[in-house]
Amino acid sequence: MTTTHDIHTPRFMVGDELHIPTFRLLRQDGTLHEEADAPDLDEETALRIYRAMLATRVLDERMMAAQRQGRLSFYMQCTGEEAAVIGATAALEDADMIMAQYREQGALVYRGFSYDEFMNQLFGNELDYGKGRQMPIHYGSRKLHYMTISSPLATQIPQAAGYAYGQKLAGEGHCTITFFGEGAASEGDFHAALNMASVHKVPVIFFCRNNGYAISTPASEQFAADGIAPRAFGYRMHAIRVDGNDVLAVYRATEEARRIAVERNEPVLIEAMTYRLAAHSSSDDPSGYRSRKEEEAWREKDPISRMRAWLLDQGWWSEEEEKNLQETLRREVLDTMKRAEKRPPPPLESLVTDVYADVTPALQRQLDGLKRHIRKYPDAYPKGARSLDPDVRDTQPDATAGDDQGRA
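The structure assignment produced for this chain is given below.
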């Protein structure tokens, strides 16, 4: 439906008449802004959020180091964006669906994904839920309502609108949140998703992490308008811009967005203003497109130190607890990584299962041909030979001996 009123001289508008404010609650020193009220966040939930933020930061630091050591082929960090991802996740119900891009491991940490589960996927071993078919950081968890990551940019955005339409029809009071960067908002999928969600009135939250860069392309070269939030108005959609490094503001904004989505079956767009402190991925060198001075300015706005200051001020946390938790997390990551990289790869047969209900003759012929090839050249395919058949695997060293604890 289009609404209008008549004018009799040409008058064009470009949107400069509309200014989108940024919702903030916490200063960097952990104190609330004047006239700001903290969300109704109890101590247990606040500490769960903070521990998830810290656990994500430690995981990222250790796994990037592992990639540089050649133990892992690829990695992407959430560093600097933990408040945006985890603050939003904490405001959801556990049964709400999360459709992420590729920098939202903090959402999984918050919901209880273990370091073992992370490592199994990163190393693609026999306990990997994806059976080694995906590159690292493409996590997924049915039990935690976290859709498996897909590499093509922005495909999860229209999928989220469609999934939320199903939730609307089911009428069970759930919603979907989809995370993406401002670069992904330049894809056509973004606009198709917003239009579908608005027309069909579905309970979906579009959460844009505006971290300033689409890999190496700065926001100033991506779009001319005032960020991503104003785009919602073209689809008559609720929108809010929030300080993405302020975990309390993110939590409160997402809490209200969820209420609108679930109670009114209306989509919401959240633009979280944040910064990617790390490289885009382990294949990227940010020094080629941004300055050290810019990075240091954003390090002063670290979301973890901001929440820590608030927790200390509440009397819910201490420096001793901080030290103990960091040491525990680092030790756990290293121990888990050692277990995961020793586990064997998935059985070779898993290449052709789950493709069709039954393995087709064509796939079986391909698998048989692969087995013959590996048997002929076992030294060229040590992992393949190791996962080929039980009789072949039994001749290999048992790398998982004494590792029963990690399988629990």
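Interim note for the steering committee: Residues 392-408 have pLDDT under 50 and may be disordered. The beta strands are 22-23, 97-99, 176-181, 204-210, 213-214, 217-218, 238-243, 268-273.
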